[in-house]
C-alpha cells in the first residue's frame, strides 16, 4: 500500500460530518428524556398514590396531565420551529421540561404534582416537535439519512419500554421522586450542548406572520380532543360528557380548517394534505401506536397483578422488546428500507406486531412469563423496530424545507393521540370486561386476565387496520423512505443550516 493511500485511510472524518452525528446525539438525548417520562411514572403510580393521597379515580391524571398538553401543543410548536428557528424552540422546550421535572420531584401534594406534570407535557411537546425536522435537514445523503432516522426511531420506540425499566428500578431502590429528579442534570447538560453545537438558523419562513387565530383554534381542538379521549375511560364513550366534549373538539377542528383555507399564512397549509404518503403514514402511525399501547400499559398490569411481579421484575420483563427494537432500528431497518422500500418493510413489520399482540391475547391466569409474555416480545420488538424508521421516513417524505417542522409536529402529534386513544379504549375495554366477568361470578384474577385478553386482541385488530391503510394508501419507491426523492414538495435542505463545524 502506498504512503498516500495509508495517509488517506488514516484521515479523520470531516469536522462537519462529526458535528452532525454529535448534534444527532444531542437531539436524541433530549427526545429520549421526553419519551421516557411518558411511561416512567407508570410503575411508580402505586407509590405516588400512597405518598400524595391520590384517590383511585384521580390517579390516572398523573399520566393524563402530561398527555393532554403534549398532544395539544405539538403542531403549534412545530410551526414555531419553522418560523423562528428550531434550535431556539428545542432549547426552550428543554428548559421548560427540566424546570418542571424539578418541581415534580419536589411536589408534596397532588395539586402541585399535576400542575408540574402539565408543564412537563408542554415542555416535552416544544422539544419533540422540531427534533425529527432537524434530523432530516442535517442528513441529506440517502445512506446517512436512513441511519440517522434509524437512531431517532430507536429512541422513539424503545424509550417507552426503557421508561418502564428505569421507573421500576428508581422507585424500588430510592423513591418515586427520583424518576423526576434524574431529568434535571440530563436536561441541563443537553441544553448546554445544544446551545454550543446546534447552529441557529433564521427560520424557513422568516418574515411570515403567525396565524394567531388558527393556532388558538387547533391547539384548543387538540387539547379538547385528547382530554375527551383520556376522560372517556372514566365517563364512558357513550356518555353525555364524552359526546359534548367530542362535539366541541370537532367544531373547533372544523373552524380551524375553514381558517386555514382563508388565511394568508396558514398554520397548516392545505397542501400538506395533498401528499398521499404523508397522510397515509400519519393514519397508519396513529392506529399502530393505539394497538401497541396495549403492550406498554396492559402487559405491565398483567405481569404485576396476575404474575405477581414487583416493579424491577416488571421493568426487566420488557427489556427484550427494547433490545430487539434497538437491533432492528439501528442495524437492519436502514438496509432493508434502502433495498426493499419503506412501504414493503412497514407492511411486514405490521404483520409481526399484530402477531405479537395476538400471542398476548391468549394469556392465562396460571401462566408464566416465559410461556405467556416472552414469546410475544420477539415479534413485537422486531416489528416495532422496523416500523418506526419506515414510518418516520414516509411521514417526512413530502415536507418542504419550510414545512419540515410542521411535518415533524404532525408525526409526533399522531403518536401522542394514538397513545391517548389506546390508553382510553383498551383500558376501558379491559375494565368493562373484568367487571362483567366479576358480576358473573368469575374469580378476581381470572376476571382480570379475561379483561386483558380482550384488550390485547382489540390492539391486534387496530394494528391490522393500520396494515390495511398502509397497503391501500401508501405508494413509495424503494429509496423514498430512506431518502425522499428530489422534486417539488420534498425536503432536501443543506446540512450546514443546523450544526456548527
UniProtKB/TrEMBL annotation:
InterPro entries: EmrB-like (IPR004638), MFS (IPR011701), MFS_dom (IPR020846), MFS_trans_sf (IPR036259). Keywords: Cell membrane, Membrane, Transmembrane, Transmembrane helix, Transport. Pfam families: MFS_1. This is Drug resistance transporter, EmrB/QacA subfamily. Its main location: membrane. It is found in: Cell membrane. One of its GO terms (molecular function) is transmembrane transporter activity. It is a multi-pass membrane protein. Residues 23-478 form the Major facilitator superfamily (MFS) profile domain. PROSITE patterns: MFS. The chain crosses the membrane at residues 21-45, 57-77, 89-108, 114-139, 151-170, 176-198, 210-233, 239-258, 278-303, 315-333, 345-365, 377-400, 421-442, 454-474. GO terms for cellular component: plasma membrane. It comes from the Bacteria. The keyword Plastid does not apply. The keyword Disulfide bond does not apply.
Amino acid at each position: 500500500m502506498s504512503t498516500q493511500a495509508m495517509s488517506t485511510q488514516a484521515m479523520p472524518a470531516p469536522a462537519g460530518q462529526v458535528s452532525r452525528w454529535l448534534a444527532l446525539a444531542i437531539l436524541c438525548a433530549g427526545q429520549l428524556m421526553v419519551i421516557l417520562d411518558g411511561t416512567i411514572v407508570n410503575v411508580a403510580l402505586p407509590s405516588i398514590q400512597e405518598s400524595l393521597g391520590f384517590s383511585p379515580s384521580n390517579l390516572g391524571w398523573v399520566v393524563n396531565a402530561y398527555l393532554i398538553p403534549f398532544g395539544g401543543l405539538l403542531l403549534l410548536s412545530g410551526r414555531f420551529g419553522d418560523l423562528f428557528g428550531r434550535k431556539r424552540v428545542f432549547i426552550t422546550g428543554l428548559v421548560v421540561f427540566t424546570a418542571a421535572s424539578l418541581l415534580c420531584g419536589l411536589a408534596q401534594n397532588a395539586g402541585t404534582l399535576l400542575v408540574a406534570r402539565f408543564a412537563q407535557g408542554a415542555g416535552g411537546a416544544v422539544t419533540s416537535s422540531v427534533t425529527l425536522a432537524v434530523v432530516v435537514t442535517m442528513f441529506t445523503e440517502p445512506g446517512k439519512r436512513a441511519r440517522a432516522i434509524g437512531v431517532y426511531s430507536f429512541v422513539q420506540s424503545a424509550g417507552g419500554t426503557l421508561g418502564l425499566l428505569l421507573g421500576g428500578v428508581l422507585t424500588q431502590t430510592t423513591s418515586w421522586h427520583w424518576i423526576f429528579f434524574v431529568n434535571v442534570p440530563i436536561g441541563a447538560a443537553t441544553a448546554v450542548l445544544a446551545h454550543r453545537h446546534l447552529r441557529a438558523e433564521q427560520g424557513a419562513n422568516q418574515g411570515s406572520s403567525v396565524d394567531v387565530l388558527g393556532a388558538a383554534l387547533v391547539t384548543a381542538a387538540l387539547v379538547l380532543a385528547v382530554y375527551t379521549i383520556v376522560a372517556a375511560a372514566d365517563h364512558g364513550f357513550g356518555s353525555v360528557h364524552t359526546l359534548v366534549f367530542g362535539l366541541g373538539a370537532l367544531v373547533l377542528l372544523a373552524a380551524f380548517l375553514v381558517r386555514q383555507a382563508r388565511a394568508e399564512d396558514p398554520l397548516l397549509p392545505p397542501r400538506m394534505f395533498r401528499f398521499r404518503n404523508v397522510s397515509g403514514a400519519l393514519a397508519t402511525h396513529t392506529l399502530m401506536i393505539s394497538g401497541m399501547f396495549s403492550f406498554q400499559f396492559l402487559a405491565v398490569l398483567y405481569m404485576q397483578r396476575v404474575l405477581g411481579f414487583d416493579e424491577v421484575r416488571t421493568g426487566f420483563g420488557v427489556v427484550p422488546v427494547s433490545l430487539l427494537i434497538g437491533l432492528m432500528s439501528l442495524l437492519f431497518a436502514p438496509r432493508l428500507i434502502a433495498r426493499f422500500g419503506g412501504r414493503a418493510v412497514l407492511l411486514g413489520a405490521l404483520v409481526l406486531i399484530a402477531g405479537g399482540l395476538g400471542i398476548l391475547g391468549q394469556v392465562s391466569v396460571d401462566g408464566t412469563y416465559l410461556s405467556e409474555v416472552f414469546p410475544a416480545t420477539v415479534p413485537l420488538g422486531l416489528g416495532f423496530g422496523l416500523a418506526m424508521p419506515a414510518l418516520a421516513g414516509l411521514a417526512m417524505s413530502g415536507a418542504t424545507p419550510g414545512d419540515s417542522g410542521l411535518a415533524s409536529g404532525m408525526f409526533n402529534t399522531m403518536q401522542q393521540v394514538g397513545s391517548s386513544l389506546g390508553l382510553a379504549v383498551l383500558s376501558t375495554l379491559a375494565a368493562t370486561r373484568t367487571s362483567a366477568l366479576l358480576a358473573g361470578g368469575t374469580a378476581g384474577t381470572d376476571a382480570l386476565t379475561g379483561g386483558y385478553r380482550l384488550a390485547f386482541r382489540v390492539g391486534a385488530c387496530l394494528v391490522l387496520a393500520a396494515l390495511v391503510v398502509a397497503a391501500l394508501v401508501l405508494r413509495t419507491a424503494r429509496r423514498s423512505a430512506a431518502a425522499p426523492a428530489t422534486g417539488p414538495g420534498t425536503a432536501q435542505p443543506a446540512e450546514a443550516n443546523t450544526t456548527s463545524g
